[in-house]
Specification:
It is globular, with a radius of gyration of 16 Å. It has a single domain, classed as NAD(P)-binding Rossmann-like Domain (Rossmann fold). The protein has an eight-stranded mixed β-sheet with strand order 3-2-1-4-5-6-7-8, sandwiched between helices. By secondary structure, the protein is of the alpha/beta class. It is built from eight helices and eight strands, in the order βαβαβαβαβαβαβαβα. The protein starts with a strand and ends in a 16-residue tail after the last helix.
Length: 226
């Protein structure tokens, strides 16, 4: 499929990890950042790591959002609302936004294993409220650690995809399957994102207690194909 995937906050650990995995899989990636130069530096580093055939470039967040068919939001939750308000006028109708944000208390100085209360119910539902009509939202990738994404090994994690829009859900699932070892699962409506997001706090606690960095989730009793 010929599409451009923009990653807002793409210079951070999660954003650059997703950019690396998807560019390796042949996707055309635009790394977005508040600082276009920093975005291009990250893109250059990823091109050097992947090879000259990698289709990856850097841009400021507004450019990435306006030029891409799929936009992945990897900005920390505390900065999501302000960024989306800044970008309100740049979105193309038909754009699919995939929200990876988790409202952890750590984003405002609290414990990493606690969740913030979100008026809309979840980070993804807040994102939907702040986007214009004609832009669809899926929630995914909240439970896949940045450290795992930055490596070359297959991951051991199911990716729950929640959305009220079937096209958005399909695109997010396709991108999940581009990551070796990942399995995309239909997580139902967007409102279920509040459950999926809360699993991140649980996984952080498991990582801390067991002194690991890659705790993930797997669901049993389901078909291998999603």
């Amino acid at each position: 499929m010929n599409r451009r995937v923009g990653i807002l906050g793409g210079t951070g650990p999660e954003g650059s990890g997703l950019a690396y995995r998807w560019a390796r899989a042949g996707e055309e990636i635009v790394v977005g950042s508040r600082d276009a130069q920093r975005a291009e530096e990250t893109a250059s580093q990823l091109r050097a790591r992947i090879g000259s055939l990698a289709k990856i470039e850097g841009a400021d967040n507004a450019t990435a959002a306006s030029q891409c068919d799929v936009v992945v939001l990897t900005v920390p939750f505390a900065g999501c609302a302000a960024l989306l308000k800044q970008l309100k006028s740049v979105w193309k109708p038909g754009t699919v936004v995939i929200d990876t944000a988790v409202p952890l208390a750590a984003t405002v100085g609290g414990a990493a294993t606690r969740m913030l209360g979100v008026w809309q119910g979840s980070a993804a539902e807040q994102t939907k409220e702040l986007l214009p009509a004609g832009v669809s939202v899926a929630a995914a990738f909240q439970n896949l650690g940045a450290e795992l994404l930055s490596k070359d090994e297959a991951v051991d994690c199911d990716i729950l995809v929640c959305s009220d829009d079937e096209r958005a859900k399909q695109i997010a699932s396709e991108l999940a399957l581009k990551i070796p070892g990942a399995r995309a699962l239909n997580g139902g409506k967007l409102e279920n994102a509040r459950i999926v997001e809360s699993l991140t706090a649980l996984l952080i606690g498991l990582n801390m207690r067991y002194k690991v960095h890659g705790a993930g989730i797997r669901f049993t009793g389901l078909p291998i194909a999603s």
